[in-house]
Amino acid sequence: MAGHSERGYVALSSEPSQASTHSLLPPETYHATPHGGTLVVHTDGTSYTYAYGPKGLAGLKNNYFALACAVFASIGGLTFGYDQGVIANILVMKDFVKTFPVTSWEKGLMTAMLELGSLVGALAAGILADGFSRRQSIMTACIVFCLGSTIQFIARSIPQLIVGRAIGGLGVGALSMLSPLYMAEISPPEVRGSLMALEQFSIVLGAVLGFWTGYFTRDLPGSISWRTPLGIQIIPGVLLGLGSIFLPASPRLLVSHGRNNEALFSLAKLRMRTRAEASTDPLLQVELLEMRAEALLVEKTFGLSSKEGTVHAEVRAWKQLFSRKYIQRTFIGIMMMFFQQWSGINALLYYGPMLMKEIGMQGDNVTLLVSGGIGIVQFIAVFPTIIYIDRLGRKPLLRWGSAAMCLSHLTIAMLVHTYESDWPSHVTAAWVAVGCVYTFTAAYGISYGPIGWILPSEVFPQSVRSKGVSLATASNWSNNFLIGLITPEMMDISPSLTFVTFALACFIGYFWSTYIVPETANVSLEEIDAVFGSSAGQEDAELKREIEQELGLHDLISELADGPTSDDH
Ligand SMILES: O[C@H]1[C@H](O)[C@@H](O)[C@H](O)[C@@H](O)[C@H]1O
After folding, report:
1. Helices in 129-281 by DSSP H: which ranges?
2. Do strands 29-32 and 38-43 pair parallel, antiparallel, or not at all (unpaired)?
3. Ligand 1 pocket check for 430: Cβ under 6 Å
4. Which residue's CA is the nearest one to ligand 1's atom 4?
5. How far apart (Å, rounded) are the C-alpha atoms in residues 197 and 449?
6. Which helix or strand (DSSP H or E) is residue 439 part of?
7. Residue 304 confidence (pLDDT)
């Protein structure tokens, strides 16, 4: 076996050919079947590589416990999707309008309050999340969310409703960053994209449920019509809050707090190994050593560790996000959400009925049903992403998604410009426009929708991940708020120009995703550094290799490569 000093840098890769090589190893191939997933170490006598697998449905089947935890954590997304789905319906319900004769300014305020609350909630969670466990943070966010929902449910005046929405928003915003963060930290690399796409799944499921609950309760007598949909949202809040007690702790956070043994046990639980197996399973050791190597690297380079928990350390971590080393990643997170929101998805969702009228649809029911359909299309579109995202990668989906979204918007803009003065005589054109709205939604639902919630959690190292994700989430909420604010104005000025604006954002998004976004599929969170390939990354590579050797990661891989070919455990 090769001596320590001769060992090369070990890279994780989905394709053995993409990983870096190392000499002086014996010519065996070792297949180990760990924790459901597989770590394959290939050696051909001159080099070795290792990769996690399999991906897609097979990978999900192997990792059903992590899948179950991710599904549960994603209830956080359900809460905000539901609100988005329900609010448009509530604001036009007969009893609601009678009890609260709101002006359009108050209507806007009520919608926007939740978004503003969420913006604050997402940032606050970024400050608090590392000091507490992820589970405690999720539970706290749920308590706040339930409090806000209860106030909305029992509200007797407009100010009470507005306060309820602001408090509920705090919880929603915190959950919208905590759920993806936790999901990224517990996911096995080979199916991380699939598991994280569940966040989008829950958001859009929530939107569909919210929309149709409101649709069906709107004719109930009195205030039950709007109190019912507002009250129902307490259920997922309570469920997630109580259930979070049973979620396994994030092994990555434990490692960064120096609690390596607990991290190993939590990892074992997530990968369906017993405590006894935890200390002997080489593959769990590989995963854990990667996490420890990264934690040490961060401590050595910045003298920074999240266990410090002082104001000083906190400020330093936020500053790190804007340092030369991480600024590119910080902008990836922020811009990911910028492009997601400026694709125009929420303009369609919030002002769907109004837009549908603009493109020629007549009658209240038709417009409500057509815009309700947008939610359903988004929901269906997320399935192919869950199955294929780790195989196809993030970049191709983003690129083709932007292209299709841009073309759909342009076609709508053209049709609106040509026929807006006389839709009733151009029914076919109106339906083509509706078709384009759906094409746009499908393309968005496969690409920018889910990947918006995946990419930001992937690009940051552990030391700044919670803050990076919190900034990206804040970008989601602030752009979301801005779109809500200006879409009606833009539509007043020119409906076709509104669509051209969104088309332009998608057009720029195409180039951004082609030239700036790194591919993060099938790379362990600890190896993301390498995909950024900045000079700062190069400097770290050497130090990281030393740390990995110190911790014994390279020895372990070599032992796997030296061992007999086996897939028998
Ligand atoms: O990914 C989600 C989703 O697509 C929602 O429908 C949208 O309203 C959100 O703003 C977005 O972040």
Report:
1. 134-154, 158-186, 192-217, 224-232, 234-243, 251-256, 260-270, 275-278
2. antiparallel
3. no
4. 449
5. 9
6. helix 427-446
7. 55
Query: In the chain, where are the structural domains located?
Result: 1-53, 59-249+320-515, 251-308
Instruction: Looking at the CA of residue 452, tell me the nearest atom of ligand 1.
Output: 1
For the Cβ of 118 lying below 6 angstroms from any atom of ligand 1, the answer is: no
Task: Give the type of residue at 72.
Answer: F
Q: CA 263 → CA 185, 253, 266, 285, 554, distances in Å?
A: 11, 8, 5, 11, 20
49 Cα to the center of ligand 1, angstroms: 38
d(CA 220, CA 528): 53
Q: CA 558 to CA 514: how far, in whole Å?
A: 37
3-state secondary structure of 7: coil
What does pLDDT average to in each consecutive run of 10 residues of the chain (569 residues)? 27 34 36 45 50 72 89 94 86 88 80 92 91 92 97 94 95 96 89 93 94 90 94 96 94 90 92 82 79 80 58 80 91 97 90 73 70 88 94 95 98 92 86 92 98 94 88 96 88 91 98 93 75 61 78 73 45
For position 51, what pLDDT does the model report?
A: 57
Q: What is the pLDDT of residue 498?
A: 93
Task: Please tell me the pTM assigned to this model.
Answer: 0.86
What Cα–Cα distance (Å) separates residue 198 from each residue in 72, 75, 104?
Answer: 10, 9, 35
* Residue 203, ligand 1, Cβ within 6 A: yes
- Within 10 angstroms of residue 82's Cβ, the number of other Cβ atoms is 28
Ligand 1: centre distance to CA 183 (Å): 18
Q: What is the CATH number of domain 59-249+320-515?
A: 1.20.1250.20
CB 207 near ligand 1, within 6 Å? yes
Q: Supply the pLDDT for residue 179.
A: 96
